[in-house]
Amino acid sequence: MAGNPNLGDELIVAAWLDYLAEHLPDADVWLDTPFPGPAAPLLAGRHPRLRVTDTLFRLRDRAAEEGVADVGQFIVDCLADPGITPWWTAGIDLLKGADVVHLVGGGYANEVWPQNLALFDALGWLARHTRARVGVTGIGLLPLGDAAAARVARAAEPLTVLDVRDRGSADALARHAERALPLRMTGDDVLLQPPAALLDPQGAQAFDVGVVVQHDLREVDWPDLVAFVREQIAAWEVAPERVAVVEAIPRLDAFIYDSLREEWPGVQIVSFQQVWQRGLPAAPHQRWISTRYHPHLIAAMAGATGVAISVRPDYYDAKHRLVRAAGSGWSLRNNALEEIGAAEPAELPHKLPRLRAAKAATARLLYGPLLAGPERRPLRQRVRALAGRALSGTDRLRALSRRR
Prior knowledge:
Layout: H1 7-23, E1 29-32, H2 36-43, E2 50-53, H3 55-65, H4 71-80, H5 89-96, E3 100-103, H6 118-129, E4 133-139, H7 146-156, E5 161-164, H8 167-176, E6 183-185, H9 201-204, E7 209-212, H10 222-235, E8 243-246, H11 255-260, E9 268-270, H12 272-278, E10 287-290, H13 293-301, E11 305-309, H14 313-326, E12 331-333, E13 339-341, H15 348-367, H16 379-382, E14 385-386, E15 397-400
Organism: Georgenia ruanii
Keywords: Transferase
Protein name: Polysaccharide pyruvyl transferase family protein
């Protein structure tokens, strides 16, 4: 979730803040994230009226502190009666007064982090009991069991927009829906951004192979993963000095750098902060090895080829298959490092205009009544929005946040 930091989460929130800065610059935007302190400087300047809070995540965590089993019901009870958690009444009132409540995309609400599925209960209650337009965009829900899928589907019935990023998430909800859902599938929220806002082509000239290999959330033995990376780079006949480890999450993605430089002291490293400030250093001349999803997506946007590794199949298979389906052309390996998808011609750069148009249409569907129109009232009197992992407020826009 925004502020952790995690490149994918930060870019998703940044994409929506940039969109709102362009289309609703006078709106007050509230970002609701579990990490408001780090998120504030990371996202500073993205919107002229951005503020950051953690109201919904305070409620989520309070449920755990009190030993409440049903986190979603606890949050709903607190929204209905702020006196249950009086420390956060001001934030709850802002949330209930929002014009738009937007849960932004990512892979943070699923059975890996089941407590975050409670956010859907909150959205359903807000859609039923306030005047807010409530929506979800670019969400990835896998892995998701039957009981959880049925609960999410019920909560999502009154939403204005329910936009998922992958077919598996869409099928899970459709299979368990008792009523019609406002279901769409327009891919990852990062697609809202033009590629130029995501890439650092000048930095890409410094190396020929990019390596993003995580130390967390994996079912692959570390020595086997390091050996595969070394062998793949050797097969590509690239000098170690032209190899760069790239951080998508600080520290966790630097372990591979320490392992590689034991034999290859000339390997480069590109820090998360450098990527955040300048963009992902990807270009068509490169090849990449990535276990993480967003580097796969963004490097493929740039025309780079490579190998994706699904180090935890129940979580990462859907992510990497989504990018391959969009035309990355990368080969795919499973957690046994066996090839489960062969390399194909890269088509993603050519598909980007259509993919961006679909995501922009989803944005208009959610924010449409608040967008420019000659008959509307001044924005500061109209906009009360909450954006899921990213936005909320009284006479404001508010955004909630999550994880990768």
